[in-house]
Each structure stands twice: as structure tokens, then as C-alpha cells.
Amino acid sequence: MYQLKKQSTVTLIERLCEELDREGVLYCQWKGHWKQQRWASGEGDIDLLVDSVDGDRFVSILCRVGFKQAMPPVERQIPGTSHYYGLDSEVDKFIHLHVHHQIIFGHHATMTYHLPLERPLLASSRPGKFFRTPAPEFELILFVISAIVRYSIYAATIRKERAWSLAERQNLEYLNSLADAAKTRQALERYLPLVEPTFFESCLRSLQRQCSHWTRLKLKWQLHSRLKAHLRRAQFIDFLLRLKYWVINRICRRVRRGSRNYLTSGGKLIALVGGDGAGKSTAVTALYEWLSRSFCTTTIHLGKPSPSVCTIVVAIARRVALLFGKLFDLVRPLSTANRRRFTLHDYLLLLRSVCIARDRYCLYKRARRLATNGTLVICDRYPTPQIESMDGPNISRLIPPGHMNRISAFLQETEASYYRQIMPADVMIVLKVRPEIAVQRKTDEDADYVRARSLEVWKLDLSQTAHVLDAGRAKTDVLDDLKNLVWSEL
Q1: What is the pTM assigned to this prediction?
Q2: Closest CA to 380 of 358, 364, 359
Q3: Which of 80, 154, 271, 391 is the most exposed place for a label (fewest CB within 10 A)?
Q4: Tens digit of pLDDT for each residue in 407-436?
Q5: β-pairing, 45-50 with 27-31?
Q6: 427 vs 29, 268, 280, 396, 468, CA distance in Å?
Q7: String of b and e for 171-184 (b: at least 16 CB within 10 Å)?
Q8: Is residue 101 classed as helix, strand or coil in its secondary structure?
């Protein structure tokens, strides 16, 4: 049975910091280091500025510690930035590293400006409680400039939002208490002469006290005029991109939920297999809720595919044939049929099995397509050749070999051909539970039926082709091991 050693969030972060210091990587947490409780518990992200020369060593350390790289949607991708996620087993969340090689800021959708202050910012860094932190003077300068740039008169007047959130005001007070006014003035004059100290003080005062919308908007325009040379793109193009992001974001909120990030290693087809009472549905739901917070994820139930038009037509025809068969006493169990005495209802029953196999195959194609394009697809009741009683070829069980005729043999081969095209999943996980426990859990179905299906899976040895988990333990223990296992395979 599979088990993984868990490590706490602090251990994960401390190990990363130790590796970075030992390798001598030039980096710092250039903003947000004062919100330790927030990012240490998996809320929000950790913004790290890394010297581009040390980029390769930094990535190798992240991989060694257990972080995986992810990509945001195309419209959110920014040159010089990357995203990494590490699993935090203690709080059941991901630690998100937002890695920067350039200081880029502005609207969260387009990040309008780039200031070439990376070298002085990194040179001023010093050891912190966890990560290295820059001199407070540099951090105060960047925070004030970024806050003024992000000011939106639309949000403040039309949507009635506060100009600066409580967290931003607390951050400003924290940085202002640490920064030395004389050193801040010197840093501006030496590294950022386009922002005069007097203008910077005006921006700082507008954040510290109540100020009219017009004054703040005027400061934003003046700051934009000073930073024109550092725009990432033309202002009109930036406006169109923000509008595009707003439209796409509104549509995605209505059409789909969850994150739109993709792991750079690609999507995966994750199949959960087990008998009745093994907790497959519970595990699928838990995995989806856990992964969809950070990555593009979906679930697919291959045991109950949506019926196609052909399946619906055959099902209706079978019911009609069954009705008329009862009237004329022509319906018999298939187990007693011989090759000369098949009825229309019999053939429709076999054809229905073929249609269900085709529906499962079409759903499998859709799942494969999603996984190929980066989505994490979690499958319930994935067809497995070794498990004969569930979600597999059905005709061979309905008709004994000696009772086949040409038509039934053709339908059997057609059904089997669909299942042969369903290849093994990328990550196959078998949830095993003792039949007695399964019967106790699945009280809404016949006990003998549940016991037989669970016993088949319990006796199978799938350790060579799948990961096997003991699902008879406590729910929290099973889900913890399941999440660690899935994360190790992504």
C-alpha cells in the first residue's frame, strides 16, 4: 500500500531558504514579506526577485525541494515572471511562488511598467526570518509607485470600493516605520531620478490621509508621464488588453469555475478505480476541490456517460420491443437463447451495450483531448480490463460462447473494439477496501451485489500497473495519502 512522508509548510519553506543560501543564489522577497502568516498558510503568493544569472540554479533548487512550475492563461503570461507550486500537507493547500526576474508592476492583468531596479534591490537585500528581504527604502518606493499606478477612479466612484484596502494601509505603515527618509531620498536621486523626492512625498501623503479622487487621479497621470519610457506596451494597447481581460474574466466566471493555470509538465488523466463502497466518488470530489483552486481541473464519470442520440433511440426501441414482446410472449432471458431463437428485444439489448461502449469511448476521447491540452482530468469508474464486473464489455457476460450467431458475434466484437481503444490512464489509483467494510458503507444497495464487486477488486493484484491505496482507513488519512500520491505523479 502506498504512503508518502508529509512535511509541514514551515519545513518546506525553511528547506527552500536553506538550499538557496547554501547555493548562494542572489534573490530576495521583494514585497509582502511582512504578511508571513498569510502566505505561510497557503493564502496568496510569495513574490521572489531572482537574479537572472542565477535563474537555472534557482529552478533546479525548486525542483529538488518539490515545487512544480505552472503557466497562467496566455493573456496573463508576462516575460520575466514564472509561477511554482509546492504541496503543503499540513494546511492542505499549495505554496505559490511568484518568481520575478524583472520588476514589473501595474494593473494585475497587464502589468504595465518595468523599472530596471533589480540590481540595486538585490544588492540591498539582507537575511530575514525566512527569505532575504530588500532594504525597506526600496520596498517603500516600489509600493508607493505601484499603489498610485493601480489607482482606479472607476473602482473608487462607480463601484464604491475603498481606494486603498486595509492590508495596503497596514503595509504602508509597516514600511514607513522601517524606512529612513534620508536614505529614501538618496535612493530616489541615485536610482530613480525621474521621480523627484518632492513628488514622491506627495504620492506618499496621498496614501496616508484622506485625499480627493481628483488629486489622486492627477498624481497618477503625472506619474504616468514620468514612467512613459518604461511602459511595456503602448497605453492604448494596454487599455484594450485590460478590456479583453475583463470580458474574458466575466465569461469564465459564468462558464467555468476554478483556476485556469496549467502545469508546464502537461495535463494528466487521473483514474480512480475500486469496488462499491471504496469511496471513489468522495475521493474524486476531494481531489477536484483541492486541485481546482490552483490548476485547470475537471472531472469525468466514465461509468455514466451522457447518452448519445443513438443510445437514446436504441433504449426507446428496446422498451417498445419489450412491451410488444410481453404481449406476444416472445421475451426470454439471453442466457437461455440459442443461435436460432434471438428476438428483436435481444438484439436491441446487445446493441445498447455497443452504444454505451461507444459513449464511453467518446467521453474518453474528450478526456484525452483535455489532458493533452493541459487540464488535470479526474476520472471516476475508469474502464479497466482486469475488472470484469464493472464498466467493461457486457455482451460476453450476457451470452454464453456457445450461443453466439453472426450478428451477436459482430456486436460483441464491435463493443470490445471500443474498449480496446481506451488506453490506461496516466495515473491509475486503485482504492481497495475489504468486502465487509464495503457492505457496511454501501447500505443503499444489495449486500451480496456490493460484496461480489468489492471482492473482485480486493483479490486483484494491480500493483504492477497502478498505485494501490488501502481505502478501509479513516477518510482523512486516505485523502491525505491520495493527494500526496497524485502530486508526486504530476
Answers
A1: 0.83
A2: 364
A3: 154
A4: 888 999 999 999 999 999 999 999 988 888
A5: antiparallel
A6: 36, 7, 15, 28, 11
A7: bbebbbeebeeeeb
A8: coil
